[in-house]
Amino acid sequence: MNFFLILSSFSTIFFIFANAASFSYPIESRNKLKTVSQPFDDFYDDYYLLKVDVGTPAQSFRLSLDTASSFLWVLDINCVSKDCHGTSDYDKKSTYNFSDSSTFVKGAGTFVAQFDGQPISGYLGKESVSFGGLTLKNQDFGSAQVLPQLYVDLPIDGVIGFGLPAMAVNGTRTPLDGLLPMLDQQMFSVWMDRKVDTSRGGPGGLVTFGAMDTVNCFADVNWVPLTVKSYWGFDLDGFKVASYERKNKEKVISDTGSGWIGAPPAVISAIVKATGAKYAWNWEI
Ligand SMILES: *[C@@H]1O[C@H](CO)[C@@H](O)[C@H](O)[C@H]1NC(C)=O
Ligand SMILES: *[C@@H]1O[C@H](CO)[C@@H](O)[C@H](O)[C@H]1NC(C)=O
Q1: What are the tens digits of pLDDT across the range 54-85?
Q2: Exposure winner among 44, 75, 128, 259, fewest CB in 10 A?
Q3: Cβ < 6 A, ligand 2 pocket
Q4: Nearest 5°: phi and psi at 23?
Q5: Which of 111, 172, 173 should be mutated for ligand 2, with most atoms under 8 A from CB?
Q6: Residue span of the signal peptide, if any (predicted)?
Q7: What angle do CA 96, 73, 284 make, to 5 degrees?
Q8: Catalytic residue list contains 255
C-alpha cells in the first residue's frame, strides 16, 4: 500500500492522498463508489469538528477531524471523568449509549488511545458510522469512559482519526480502512479556511472524500512521498516566512488535529521575530 501527501499552498490549504494499490479489503463495485464533501467547524483554530453519526437510530457527535491518529472514539454516557459531560450549554457534550443502538456490536474488550499525549480508555465496539452521506458499517470504535482533563470548555465529543493503519489502536480496523474502498479515488483532501478572528464554531473548511477539492484548493499540486507512514509525515527541504529562511531538511507531519505550526524554539523565535508576532506565554502559543 502506498500513501502520498500532496501539498498545495502552505499555511491554508493542503491535500492528503492515499493510493492504496493493493488494498486488503474488497472495493465496492464501480457504480457504487462515491465522492462526498462535508464542511467542518473551527474552534479557536485549535480543533476542527466534523458532525458524525454513530448508531441506529443515529446518535450525533462533533468529532475532531484528526490526521495524526487512526481511531474513532466518542464519549460514553457512563464516562466517569469530570470533563465528559461539559459544564454549560455551550460546551455541552454528546455521549454515546450502546443500549439505544440496534447496530452496536460488542468489541474485544478495552482500548487505550492517546489524546494530546494522555491516555483515554473505554470499551471497544463496532457500529454504523455516517458522515457526508457515507456509512461505514461495522466500523471499529471506542466509547471512552476515562479521559484526561483537557477540553472542558469545548464541545468536542471525541475524535475521528484519518491517520494510517500503522497507528491502529488495539489492532482495530481504522476509519480509513473502512472508508477508502467506498470512494471513487482512494484519496481525501482537507481544505482549511483562513479565519482571522477567533472562531467559536464558525465554518472552518471542507473535507472531500474520493477526490481532490478543486473548488477551494489550487490546481498545481506538489507530490511528496511519505517518510513516516504512521503519521502523514514527510521531509521538508526548507521553508520561508517573511524575511526568515531555513534550508535544513526536517521531518514534519501534516496534522489536522492541531491548528498550529510547531517547531523547535530557535525556529519559532526566528519566525516570531520576522513576522512581529507575539508569544502568548499563558497559552504556550
Ligand atoms: C441508555 O439507554 C437505555 C435504553 O434507552 C436506558 O435505559 C438507560 O437509562 C440509558 N443510560 C443512561 C446512563 O442514561
Ligand atoms: C488494548 O491495549 C491496552 C494497552 O495498550 C491493553 O491494556 C488492553 O487490554 C488492550 N485491549 C485488547 C482488547 O486487547
Answers
A1: 999 999 999 999 999 999 999 999 998 877 88
A2: 44
A3: 108-112, 124, 170
A4: -70, 140
A5: 111
A6: 1-20
A7: 120
A8: yes
